[in-house]
Amino acid sequence: MVHGKRAMIMSGEMHPWRMPSTSLWIDVFEKIKALGFTAVSFYVHWGLVEYAKDDINFSGFLSLEPFFEAARKTGLYLIARPGPYINAETTGGGTPGWGTRVPGAWRTTNQTYFDAMENYVRSVSRILAKEQITNGGVLVLVQPENEYSYCFESPNCHVPWPQPAYMELLQNMMREEGIVVPTITSNYAPGSGVGEVDIRGYDNYPLSFICNATSTWPDNKLPTNFWEANHNRSGGNPNSIMEMQAGAHGRWGWFTPDDCATLTGSDFERVFYKNYVSFSTTVLNLYMMYGGTNWGGIASPATITSYDYGSPIRENRLLTREKYSELKLLAQFLLVSPAYLTTKPLNQIPNTINGSTFTNNLNLATTQLADVVGNKTVFWVVRHNAYNSLEKSVYRLRVPTSKGTVEVPVLGGDLSLSGRDSKIHVSDYSIGSDTTALYSSGEILTWKQFSSKTVLVIHGFPGETHETAFIVPDQPKLEVKQIAGSALRNSTITSDIVTINYQIPATSSQTVISIGLKLQVVIVNRNTAFDFWTPSWNSGNSSAIVKSPYLIRSADLSNAGVLMIRGDLNQTKVEVEVFADDDINSVSFNGKNVDVRRSGYGSLKFDMTSSDLKVELPNLEKLDWKYIDGLPELRRDFDDSKWTSANKTDSNNPRKPTTPTSLYSSDYGYHTNNILWRGHFIATGTETNFTAEIQGGSAFSAAVYIDDKQISYFGGIYNVAAANLTGVVPALEKGSKHVITVLQDHMGLEQNYGPGGDLHKVPRGILNYRFEGGNGTNVTWKVTGNLGGEHYLDRVRGPLNEGGLYAERQGFHQPSVDTSSWSKGGPAEGLKEAGVRFYYTTFNLDVPRGLDVPISINIKNSTVPTTYRALIYVNGWQFGKYVNNMGPQTSFPVPEGIFNHHGTNTLALSLWNMESNGAKVEGLSLKADGVVETSMWEVEMMPSPIWTKREQAY
Ligand code: GAL
Predict the structure, then answer these.
(1) Could you give the CA distance from residue 425 to residue 447 in angstroms, rounded to a whole number?
(2) What pLDDT, on a 0 to 100 scale, did the predictor assign at position 149?
(3) Does this model's pTM top 0.85?
(4) Which of 17, 18, 87, 242 for mutating ligand 1's site (highest number of atoms within 8 Å of CB)?
(5) Cα(245) to centroid of ligand 1, in Å?
(6) Residue bearing the CA closest to ligand 1, atom 3
(7) Phi–psi pair at 514, nearest 5 degrees
(8) What's the pLDDT at 496?
(9) Ligand 1 centroid from CA 147, angstroms
(10) pLDDT, tens digit, for every residue of 457-467?
């Protein structure tokens, strides 16, 4: 219930911090709203907000107010998931790097942990509290913690388990700061005593996270008992799925988010989501609806720069995945089916074999989902018993209705279910105040009751036979008329029941059938159904049905009675159709009045022609590039006196250092991106080999140099977090001074998914080192990461944007660097030896106004496996980590607002080559991922501070 009314929470997950161009948040929200969804769920990232203890920063891309504001403007509810633990494939699972130094088990009642998290939890709760629906805001639910239902290495937990007192204390803290809306999370169901939450919610990822076998659905992965299981555990709470799989994350050297989009495509949605619907799920949240980007050091080692997630809305915000459209069909249906909110599955484990007789085909399973409050409507959810079947099954639906049992289709033909599909048939289903579908096998997309008639839109796969019977109000002359199209096969009228039998068209042609005076049925195939939208006015509850490809964002009625539609076009010529109240005669599209004509069945039609959907982008390889040496540390005269001494002889880390001093970067405040170590030693002259065991997280790389020579490197393996690097020491003179330089990649801190594991503390750095032949050669170590460490300099781009490379420490990745003294040359030429080069160029973009053109930076994977990595900076923002020898990501979307689409841009790139025979970046290019004429809100440039000399830089 929201404000005393039953509400369906259909929510999509989006993380504001994964889209730092904050004025684009509302674009994503409008696309979520257009689906028919009602809410957005979001994590807050403690680690970003409190990078140094007690230095809380909720400004810029970390500020929540603009996110709230965007939800308010769009008319969406929010679900906040502030952690403190969030997982989310982000560094430390959202915990701060300094947390690695806090002793004691995290995510428990441990006081050291409480002292660590309290300031953040209270601060974020205060911000959230203001936005609660009880205070006139949009926040309806808060999730404390995340999947707090199992411990590390269960059942042999390292901490007392379970920990209800922790959940209790955490919620108390939130309540004390003013949180009053219901709390929701896995376990700790209401009635369970200490630690209980208000609503039990749970997560489900039935196809798991490995996307390389994109069409393999293993047997028995479709859950069938969730309603019952939840009901038994939750004390009758609504079935609430806080994370329902909507994709999966790409992995280093393995598969891309596009592979995950295929695995969890429209067929997955049809079968799995309708199955969740069959559990009467009324709080559901798709993880992720919009994934965004792991820019800078946001990722944990589990994933790549892209957090596209194979989600319905792409990382570049384009709506070109069929799964977006398929999802809309389901969401729109639920939006107009209030009876669903009070349903209960009557056969909880749907299985025809076990006795249900609702179809005549034993290969099918049917759930009878009945409205147990209204006592009328039933939703019949049909799927293959073997959920992954690719068979086509023919059947008849045999169901009870208020007018007796029917066997559908009555007027001829058969129903059919092709492979990975599922249908929601209905019986005794209200369509507006005066019409009821006695039954419909054709799936309902939407219906609207307009002033003079009700319009109902039905869809199916091409060629399918369907039948719908209506109980229509008493009227003098009841007739069935096909006014457009040819889908109608047969019809009958018996007293007040009108039955139509139809075949779904193979083409995009639309059939319109009028039934009596007050009902119009529109029949289309599934792909044509994708073009239907139901924008509702800000003022009041009215809405229209608009048919237009790509996107309709909103509609509103002007005082003069003009229907003002906002939409985006991805084709140059489009016919738009509007079903609305009869008194609406004029329409504007994106602010321009259009010439409308009335169709034979009363809708309004108009043509839209858009400008040329083309843009010219500069050729990056032809630009003037400059570069500097990216690893001056290899020079004999390099001065590291300002570096941090790695001199701590002890560490709070659960892994006690096995080196004379701790060589864990987090012990010195460096938690992200490139880390550099300098080891000074006086040679005994007998050293032969040097070995270092370096840990950076899966897919990390490292290189070891003695003086100016690379002696060993490790290019990275997707699942290897630490490696021994052994190299031959050049002949050294006894008593001479030398330096070991270690450059290592930090792939993010591990997630601490199970309390008791404290995996976020797993160190990054040098675990062990030794000289062979050396007679106990003493090494004195220094370390650097990003300049300032936890007290990072760039308060706008945040703490994870830069790492420890020389050029990053100097701030050379930012705009307006004076490169006059730098050498000429670009990444396409590359470098001939092992080492790092830092490249810099500028160019203009001149994207025509009114076009939404998501632009990506692309690199062509070198065919020879050249071991190099590149970091890509756009206007100072790190938006790509490219690993040539591993992939898989070669295309890096950069949002507008980070890119300046109407002016000068700076592109910087660090090329870290580990091969002795050189490396170059091939095929560096800009690509327009799509060109859309748009009605989106103006995109504001994020502040992108320009370079000023960093006095303290070294
Ligand atoms: C869930 C977790 C999310 C995310 C997801 C996988 O278990 O709650 O934060 O990590 O797995 O993408």
Answers:
(1) 15
(2) 92
(3) yes
(4) 87
(5) 9
(6) 88
(7) -100, 140
(8) 85
(9) 8
(10) 999 999 999 99
* Residue 379, strand partner residues: 369, 426
Closest C-alpha residue for ligand 1 atom 5: 88
Of the pLDDT bands very low, low, confident and very high (cuts 50, 70, 90), residue 304 is very high
pLDDT at 540: 65
Query: Which residues are paired to 681 by β-bridges?
Result: 738, 779
Model confidence over 721-749: pLDDT tens digits? 999 999 999 999 999 999 999 999 999 99
pLDDT of 539 over the 90 cut: no
Task: For tokens 């036979």, name the residue.
Answer: 465
CA of 288, closest atom in ligand 1: 12
CA–CA dist 159, 106 (Å, integer):
10
Q: How far apart are CA 867 and CA 854, in angstroms?
A: 30
Residue identifier of the C-alpha nearest atom 9 of ligand 1? 88
Q: Up-side HSE of residue 677: CA atoms within 13 Å toward CB? A: 33
906 vs 247: CA distance, rounded Å: 33
Q: Which two tokens stand for residue 180?
A: 């009053």
CA of 205 to the centre of ligand 1 (A): 9
Q: Which atom of ligand 1 is nearest to the CA of 249?
A: 12
Centre a 10 Å sphere on the Cβ of residue 462 and count the other Cβ atoms it contains: 14
243 is catalytic: yes
Asked if residue 800 lies in contact with residue 48, where contact means CB atoms within 8 angstroms, the answer is: yes
Looking from the CA of residue 146, the nearest atom of ligand 1 is 8
| Residue 909 pLDDT class (50, 70, 90 cuts) | very high
Which residues have a Cβ under 8 Å from the Cβ of 625 and sit 6 or more positions away? 824, 825, 826, 827, 839, 840, 841
**Is the Cβ–Cβ distance between 589 and 934 less than 8 Å?**
no
The residue whose CA has the least distance to atom 6 of ligand 1 is: 88
In the structure, which protein residues have their CB atom closer than 6 angstroms to any atom of ligand 1? 86-89, 146-147, 203, 243, 249
Instruction: Determine how β-strand 184-185 pairs with β-strand 199-204.
Output: parallel
- For ligand 1, the distance from its centroid to the CA atom of residue 211, given in whole angstroms, is 15
Closest atom, ligand 1, to C-alpha of 43: 9
Among 452-461, 600-609, 746-755, 860-869, the least confident range: 860-869
What value does the mean pLDDT take over residues 771-776? 86
Q: Does 354 have pLDDT greater than 60?
A: no
Distance from the CA of 417 to the center of ligand 1, in angstroms? 33
Ligand 1 geometric centre to CA of 87 (Å): 6
Instruction: Share the mean pLDDT of the chain.
Output: 96
The residue whose CA is least distant from atom 10 of ligand 1 is 88
> Given a cut of 90, is residue 352 above it in pLDDT?
no
Catalytic residue among 13, 131, 145, 243: 243
Catalytic residue among 13, 131, 147, 802: 147
Question: Got the DSSP string for 546-566?
Answer: EE-SSEEEEEEE-TTSEEEEE
Rg (CA), the chain: 30
Please tell me the distance from the alpha carbon of residue 410 to that of residue 416, in angstroms, as a whole number: 14
Place of tokens 């030398």: 738
Are 432 and 440 contacting, i.e. CB atoms less than 8 angstroms apart? Answer: no
